[in-house]
Task: inverse folding
């Protein structure tokens, strides 16, 4: 069991933010970690949407049929937005 966790932990990227010029210290560090939390929240939202789609009432009674897609779309948008900001900031900090 412990060996499985070590293997799975290697799949998650290192969440050590790149220092941004002009924004060193605590603020820059919190900003970098905050973007990673937005990515993880987006993945969680998309996963919850998939779960809701799997357990939803398929007969069309008792609820909004588009709700799971709202969760998945919102989660995907959060991942794309935060991923883009991380890539831009890493480009600024790296070059």
Result:
């Amino acid at each position: 069991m412990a060996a499985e966790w070590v293997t799975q932990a290697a799949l998650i990227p290192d969440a050590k933010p790149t220092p941004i010029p002009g924004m060193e210290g605590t603020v820059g560090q919190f900003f970098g970690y905050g973007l990673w939390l937005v990515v993880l929240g987006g993945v969680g939202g998309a996963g919850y949407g998939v779960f809701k789609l799997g357990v939803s009432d398929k007969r069309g009674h008792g609820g909004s049929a588009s709700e799971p897609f709202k969760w998945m779309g919102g989660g995907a948008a959060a991942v794309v937005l935060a991923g883009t900001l991380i890539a831009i900031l890493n480009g600024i900090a790296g070059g």
In short: The first helix runs from residue 2 to 9. The chain is about 70% helix and 0% strand. The radius of gyration is 18 Å. Residues 57 and 77 are 25 Å apart (CA to CA).
